[in-house]
Amino acid sequence: MKDLVIIGGGPAGMSAAIAAYENGIRDILIIERDEKLGGILQQCIHNGFGLHKFGEELTGPEYAWKYEKKVHELGIEYKCSTMVLDLSKDKVITATNAQEGIFRIQAKTVILAMGCRERAKGALNIAGSRPAGIYSAGTAQKYVNMKGYMPGKNVVILGSGDIGLIMARRMTLEGAKVHAVCELMPYSGGLARNIEQCLNDFNIPLKLSHTVVEIHGKDRVEGVTIAQVDENRKPIASTREYIPCDTLLLSVGLIPENELSKEAGVSLSPLTNGATVDQDRQTSIPGVYACGNVLHVHDLVDFVSEEAEIAGKAAAEYIQDDKAQTIHIPIRTDGKVRYTVPQVITKQKDVTVYFRVSDVYKDVKINVTCGDKLVLTKRRPKVAPGEMESIVLKADKLTDVSELRFSLEVL
After folding, report:
1. For position 411, which CATH number holds?
2. pTM here?
3. Per-residue pLDDT tens for 241-259?
């Protein structure tokens, strides 16, 4: 029996473990499938991490080391090179590693911190064969930053997520020619600072409302055909353009790793593909929490750490018999506000609600209502899908409220 088992030893898992420890829990185990702690940050050697959390600019490995060092100092137990095979609704974890074989652990509480994976080519409807030279942006990042391999010299990138933008710069710095970054949507999915620092600073063209319609080459990619898309995201034949290249990088979205969550019966949101949670990041199963990119995809690792601290502290309170849920306030959205985290409020306390919008809007008001009653309103000069937004709901705003609705008003 373990008081707390955390599945995933990346920034979310380590931050949650430290928060639980600092709130009185000592019987903690982190399970990580990789050979060391740190998660995806180990391959993110660019800077830009830690500005919110530590007030200094760090690389990914430097950011991860701050947490790994703390885990070591506190003596928090962890098992690396260990794969979790199953999680039951009774919080029984089945795992395996080379030393112990298959083993089971009964936990009082579980924190899900498995992160996310990239959407692969198989999820895209692109004509052509299966030549070498097609990589997800994260795979290419690992090859370049950790293995010392160059995936190619003439590159086209499909998708303008943050990883794709960062790899456009990385490949350029390593001597490759990035011919274009194509984005299906009329806006980029990445942070504005990454568009500026990774594309504009290197004169890499960003082609919005464009996609790859055909991949050419048999043994190796020889080129791609791109085309502009209409308002229904259908390619316009007259705009087809051939670009010779030997490499296609895909940055077409991230998917939370929730196979274990599904097996346990955790309720998932169709909008985030992560668990539905309350303000403490507790899932539909009491004593099971979720945080980080397994819950919803974050812009910054700093926010992953902050969210994990919420889950770690809440798990500690649960172990210490604070299980009271005094209210039940579901949060709805209007479509322009795509989703919120949390999706339900169960305790009357100050709650920070994070949300994403479905399109780029300028000069807007975010309205929080209960029926005809306006609970809170905030004005924003601009909101975009690539930037997480948040609103703080004070505890006194949650009195006599049965449901909250988040909507966006364009002024």
Report:
1. 2.60.40
2. 0.93
3. 999 999 999 998 888 999 9
